[in-house]
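hi support,

uploading two proteins for the ticket. first:
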Amino acid sequence: MTKESVIQSVPGEAAPPARRRRKEARPAEIIEAGMQEFALRGFAGTRLEDVARRAGIAKGTIYLYFRDKESLFMAAVQEKVVPAIGEIAGFVDSFPGPTRELLKLVIPVLHQRLVQSDLHTILRILIGEGSHFPGLTALYYRETVLRGRELLERIVARGRARGEIRDGAAADLPLVIMAPAIMSAIWQMTFTREAPIPPEQFLAAHLDLITEGLLLPEPGR
């Protein structure tokens, strides 16, 4: 349900004027136009005037919402990545079942966000251009990677406390849980024309690797 439909459904309260609705939607429209330009030209090759043209606005309008191209990129990260981390964190904290079932919920979300969305554009920029723009890499690490690491560490600590995760190098570095999802994203970006592998096959292999390698066998197996 959209924000407008919610407002319209409240008795006695009129919907906001179209101009105000347009203004509220504009940052998201600029971010979407920016993502399309980043995907087409990379970070270095993207110009704010091209973003403005794609969004159908004057270049000066962008500066009402974003300080520069870097802040536009980080706004895209905030919109595309951070909500996914919050979504996962929410059910990690409240999930009552075994860690095996928790990971079966978490890992498909990671694949969906990394492989089946335009987040791979951000990943491609960080891999290909991050060394030229260290500020982007540092910001992305603080805003997303660090939060993701902490979340994975919580999952592993939870599993260890419940006696469900085997001790070893993988448990000592929970970050490696992400590796197959990142590999899937890189494969789809780079090698899919030469050797296509369906994303769902990567997901199945990822689940098998984690549940059979990181986790202790279930009782009775």
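and the second one:
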Amino acid sequence: MHVTGTAPQPAPASSEDLKATVADLHETTDVIDGHGAPGKHARRFGLPVATALVMGNIIGGGIFLLPASIAPYGWVSLVAFGVLTVGAIALALVFGRLAARDPRTGGPYVYAREAFGDFAGFLAAWAYWITTWVSNAALAVAAVGYLDVLIPVNDHKWTACLAALLLQWLPALANFAGTRYVGAVQLVSTVLKFVPLLLVAVGGLFFFDPSRLGPFNASGHSAVGAVSASAALLLFSYLGVESAAVSAGEVRNARRNVGRATVIGTAGAALVYLLGTLSVFGTVAHNRLVTSTAPFSDAVNTMFGGGWGGTAVALAALVSMTGCLNGWTLLSAQTPYAAAEDGLFPAAFARRRRGVPTVGVGVTVVLSSLLTAYNYLSGSAKVFDVLVLVTTFTATVPYLLATAAQLFHLVSGRSVDRGRLVRDSVITVIAAAFSVWLMAGAGYAAVYQGVLFLFVGILVYAVMAARRQRREA
């Protein structure tokens, strides 16, 4: 057993440690492209961009609707926020520890495959891939509602559908241009969307009126039941904590920066969520907030008067969702890329251009576009709602496999820092419980649909495994 980390008398470094150290020292800001020369459009992300990627992917459009969604439960839902935040940060810490051990692109896929073999790795990659392109469709459709405030597009379902497709393909084009542009768009969109969010989250505290909070528990159920019910609505908001780990191969000094970016990004997003929701609760009367379709707009109008709040928040939401789509589009290609390099996904997914797996980007944006078109043409919002919850379920599969991989390393004693053993064990158990809670919160219908998606993946794995075995033979 090899023990890493600091100790009063450290053991001599192994050849693997020396190789990893040399690899870290030789990392540059340029990513080598397929021709063996530095690609000027392919750059490794530093800590700021990696943190922006995490925060940008966690904070999408949900923050702008969240206060009204949980208002019927009363401000007991803020307790659910706290519980979810603890779980999300525990999961972020687990990803940081796993990335320090294995800083390759792929995140949960890499961790599950290294610990449990090809099938577990494929299952993590397949489930995460489903999560990314279904989430992209959900974000695009939600963004159209805010775009309609600025430019009327919802008058006809065809114009709304075209607008949603455009919102998906613009980030895809940024990804085709290279990781250099992906990082630039992500950083700018994250900064821009935090301006109005912080305006409400911080400025709203100066207009806070406790009488507007309403009852602590307005649901009529027990406090525990109200926390669980409101948490089910909040679960989707924390998807994205794995963003830096999935793109670890594009992060400079990944062994250190992935963990830092994941924890900082998750904590920052949680703080914005909590302060923003608390400010809206304290500035908009409870009976009005329950029926609000634009709670942040109502909060700004209460704070400063006038009707310009709706336009400002709509613009902020649109910027937020576009940046979120930009980050998720990159993530949608990274996991299939890692799996394709190992022969578990079709080889085409391993093709890269300017640091981006272009085939993965193209396939996933086509799938999300088809799902978006289906959503508009079917005219059923319920189908869309179930698909959104499906992403909550499918995301927990790689989350749970990643925490299981960390638990495996801790119990087996593989590269374990004894000084951190107890702390890492507690954090891993919390992260595992959080993942199971995510799965339960998705609901029966979403779990049913998600399991069907996973079963299709098993058939794909059978074909890929047979082809690989035939090539080896």
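thanks. also noticed: The mean pLDDT is 78.
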